[in-house]
Amino acid sequence: MSEKENLVPPPYNGFKTSQSVPVMTQLESCTLQPHSVHVTLKPRPPLINPPPDYLYFAVFVTLCCFWPTGLVAIFRSMDVRKASAGGDSYAAVEASHSVKQLSWISVGIGLTIISIVILFYIISQKA
C-alpha cells in the first residue's frame, strides 16, 4: 500500500463490523424497567449576597419617565428576586443587569420626550 491509501479511512457500512463486539458488557446483569427512574434533586439554597434588583428605580421610571420599558424592568426585577431565591446566581446577575439597562433606557426616552414637548411648547408660544 502507498502512503495515500493509509490516510483514507475505511468506508462506512453503518454499525456493522467484521468482529463481534459486546456492547453492554458491564450492564448484562442489570435489569432496566421502563418508568422506574427516580431522580431527586436538592433545591439550591438562596444566594447569600444577591445582586441588586433595582425595583424602586424601575417603579420610578415607570411612573415618571417611560412606562413600556419601565414595566418590563419591573418584571425583570421580579426575575432577579426569583433567581436569587432559587440560588441561580447567573440568571440573577443577568436579570439585574437588564433591569438597570431598561431603567436607564426609560430615563433616556422619558427625558427626550419631555425635552421635545418643552421645545414644541416654547416654539408654539413664540408663534
In brief, what are we looking at here?
The protein has helices at 3-7, 55-64, 67-86, 89-126. By secondary structure, it is mostly helical.
Main attributes of the structure:
mainly alpha; about 130 residues; about 0% strand
What would you say this structure looks like, in words?
With 127 residues, this protein is mostly helical. The protein has helices at residues 3-7, 55-64, 67-86, 89-126. The longest helix is centred in the C-terminal third of the chain and has 38 residues, at 89-126. The radius of gyration is 31 Å and the shape is elongated.
Oligomeric state of shown chains: single chain
* Anisotropy-based shape: elongated
Order of helices and strands: HHHH
Structural class of the secondary structure composition?
A: mainly alpha
| Main beta sheet | none
Low-confidence spans: 21-29
Q: What is the rounded Rg?
A: 31 Å
Helix and strand arrangement:
Layout: H1 3-7, H2 55-64, H3 67-86, H4 89-126
